[in-house]
Structure formats: C-alpha cells, structure tokens
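Hi R.,

Here's the chain you asked about this morning:
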Amino acid sequence: MRRVRTTVLLFIAVLSLAACNGSNGSNGAGAGPTTTPAAGTPTSTGEPGTATSGTTQTTTTTVWSSSPKTATRSVTSIPRLVNVRAAHHPTFDRIVFDFKGELPGYRVEYVGQVTEDGSGEPVPLQGQAFLSVVFTPADMHDDQGNTTYPGPKTLTLNYPSLREAKLAGDFEAHVSWGLGLDDRVGFKVSTLSGPSRIVIDVAA
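And the predicted structure, written out as tokens:
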C-alpha cells in the first residue's frame, strides 16, 4: 500500500511540473518584440506640397484656401535667399524659394497692393489678385552686401494662375516678393529641407 501511495504522489508531482513548464513557455518564448514605423518618414504621393525622394518635408499646409499662411522660426544664423524658380503643373502653379542655411519664417497673404519694403512704394504686378510673400528672418545679401540671389528680380511667367513674381524688398532681415495671380484662388505653403526650400502652390 505504501508503494502505491508513493507512486501516485510521484505521478502527481510530474504532472504539476509539466503544467508549470507549459505555462512558462506560452508566456515567454513566443512573445517577440514589436516595431512601429519611424516618425517623420517622408512619403511621396505626387500631390502638391509633398516630399519627394531625397527630401525631408518639415511642415505642410494641407488645405487649399485663400486665408493667410504664417510660420515663425528662431534661427542660429540668418537664412539667405539663393534661388527662385517656378513651374506649371496640371492643376496648380508652383514657385519655390531656395535658401542657404536654415528655413526662415514666412507670411503669405492676399493684399490689395504689394508695396516695397522701406519706401512703401507700390510694386506693379500683372494679374487681378496679389499675394504678399515675406520671409523673416532672411537676407538676400551676404555680410559684405553682395547679393546672394543672382537671378532676375522679375519673373514673367504667364501661367494659368501665376502670372508674375517680383522682388519687393531685402530690408532689415526681411525678404519680400509679390505674386500676381489671374484671380483670387486657394493656395498652399510647404517647407522642405536638404536644401531649405519654401514652396507656394496656387490652384490653377
């Protein structure tokens, strides 16, 4: 009788040990690490204002509207405008401002008349509606006063929406341009880095 009791107790102990081992395996060995996509990974969708390969998009205005678009930034050194270029796309016209260094802040808004910085004189522009584009802090010259933007101060474009772009000032860390549009339409503003660019798209 004692031998039977000992055998039963040993059998129960073996069952208990097997149950414990099975429980530990289900809670540990099969649980692998989980991963999530890195935040800020650029994508390319082909839409206006999206980043393309080799660029990093930092901010984007995603809604077409005619309301003012603004951004304020603190910089370690004043960005300098080095290039301005424009192109027509099937549903929008685009103008791009290239900067050396960091991105400046900006204000883009419709105005009744674009005026020169400092003098306040009107800046004549083709079109029926006008966008004032002001970058700050920003310069268009180096420390010796030499221009950092050798391109034309007036771009006669004659696109469906964007008719003309014209320099309005390089004054006290403000660089200003005026855009003449065929009509008052919605627009977007995007910023890209590598190199630093501010992109304005106007609906066409």
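The chain has one domain: 56-203.

Let me know if you need anything else.
M.
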